[in-house]
Amino acid sequence: MQKNPNKKRKVLSYIIITISSLIMLTPFITAALNSLKSYVQYTAIPVEWIPDPVQWENYVEVWKMTDFAQYGWNSLVVTVLSVVGALFSCSLVGYAFARLEFRFKNSLFIMVLGTLMIPPVVMIIPQFIIFKNMGLLDTLVPLWILEWLAQPFGIFLMRQAFLAIPKEYEEAAKLDGCSPLQTYWRIFLPMCKPQLATLTIFTFMAKWNEIMAPVIYLSSQEKFTLPIGVLSMSGAWFGQEQYLVAAALMTLIPILIVFLFTEKFFVKGASSSGLK
Amino acid sequence: MKSETNTLINIWTKISTKKKRKGLNSEGKWALLMISPYLLHFIVFIVFTLLASLYFSFSRYDMLSAPEWIGVENYNKLINDPIFWKSLWNTVYFTLLFVPTQTILALILAVALNQQLKGLKLYRFAHFIPVISSWTVVLYVADAIFNPRFGLANDLLVKLGLEPQKWLNDEQLVIPVLVAVAVWKGVGYMMVIFLAGLQNVPEDLYEAAEIEGAGFIGKFRHVTIPLISGTTFLVLVLSTITTFQAFEQIYVMTGNSGDITAAGGPNNASMVLMLYLFQQGFAFLKMGYASAIAWVLFIILFIITLIQVKIQKKWVHYEK
Q1: CA distance A243 to chain B (A)
Q2: Separation in Å, CA of A183 to nearest CA in chain B
Q3: Chain A partners of B301 at a C-beta cutoff of 8 Å?
Q4: What average pLDDT values come out for chain A (276 residues) when binned by 10 residues?
Q5: For chain A, give me the number of helices (H) and strands (E)?
Q6: Which residue, among A3, A95, A124, A230, would best test binding to B if mutated, counting the most B CBs under 10 Å from its CB?
Q7: Entry pTM
Q8: Is the Cβ–Cβ distance between B235 and A276 less than 8 Å?
Q9: Closest by Cβ to A274, choosing from B132, B197, B252
């Protein structure tokens, strides 16, 4: 951002971030190479970098030998239902807080912000008991249902988006006889696509990678989501760890694709979480 | 699909317009309808669970029979529980190593990235892959480096003529290794938060400092640091609070095939409060005892936040 770029400073910056990028990537590259090795080569000392021969069949083996497809399907169900739920509930609640007048609005909104400060840990056990009493243990429902009940981060994000829209739109809609719900759905929601995209990528990432809730709620193997499914494979593949690396790397692919397409929104969401 | 939704909304509107005559269609009623997901969330999953959790922490509760009120017994037991103290210490140790390291590295990277460089997107991408990876992915990727038998780290040590290490299986090394991996995973995210903060620093302040003869270090100390102190404060608070509640990393990286009772080793050297809470609650069904741990954790976090807010007034610079 310097007007007179200090050359020395630029060179130093390049060196710093190149080294840092290499540190970030080396483990992934090594793991990717490991996933293509035979077990003999995988465990060779000293380390042999290049797989020889390249064993693509390690990846096929993961699909053939395990419930990988089932885990993937479970993860997809949880993630998609969570994303839809978050988009629906957070935008609805956010709209009400931004554009409608009602009693106790401010105190209710302060409550929303207040709940952000309560550590989730104190609620885990009663939550578990609620779901147990509802007969939902060992189902995927507890993993996505809470996203339908408007989490504070999403409410806050959507409220900010709705607040930024000029009042004229609302008045025009009112003249046309739109109810608040119609105004929200037809006029305001389409104008908040960037924030909806941000909410999508954040919910997607959190749910696709989530480990804590699946560990608590799921007990039968065929209900497992990918992260704990792949973890649970390690017993069966003791002494064949190249398959585990292949399986783990495959779980990364979908989120990598989503990320590549929505990088802009990811950066936006990340940076907005650090600003007041 | 779209027209279907619109029809649904029309029907909804019709129903509610009918109610209008009974005075039910004011903006307030619409608002109540629209915030109902959050109200349900708040009443059931916040207020009710908080009260229940507090009650459980004074009870003996194995989930098979009704909770039995035992007063402060759980808390008494906690005070005399050496593993609780060990996990509290480990949590503090982890946080003290992790938070400053990650914050300083993220700031350095953000400053380096905050200029017109070629390949900016690629650099950012490299730092984001760990951020978007699940801890399961991280476990197997980090194994390429820290595997005690054939990892790169030991390969390097041996080539340098040094002793190979047991890394995660070493009581002394387990937390430093976990911290190194956690920094590797999280630094990209914090870097972006800092980048956003840096881009809010007005350019003319740097120019003014330059005119007064400030070099790079001088500008960094007298302009950058004070002007992003708000961001830094937030990063510190957020990462302290999340680190104190860290569970997934320790569970995945020190457990064995997802066996929760096996995690936290070797010899409890990486047992942290959250993991202990989980073992007590979900593996041993001591829900009352686990709730007591949860409340102790809550109180500690509350005190940390209070202290940080107090200190903040001394060093955070807010623009007027």
Answers
A1: 10
A2: 11
A3: 119
A4: 65 93 96 93 86 91 91 97 97 95 90 86 94 96 96 92 91 86 92 93 95 95 95 84 94 93 84 60
A5: 14, 0
A6: A124
A7: 0.90
A8: no
A9: B197
Report CB contact under 8 Å: B144, A27. Answer: yes
Structure tokens at B80: 């005399």
Q: What ipTM was estimated for this complex?
A: 0.92
Contact A129 B63 (CB under 8 A): yes
Asked if A105's CB is within 8 angstroms of B197's CB, the reply is no
Q: Which residue of B has its CA nearest to A91?
A: B34
Task: Retrieve residue B23's tokens.
Answer: 């005075």
- Size of the A and B interface in Cβ pairs below 8 Å: 316
pLDDT attached to residue A276: 40
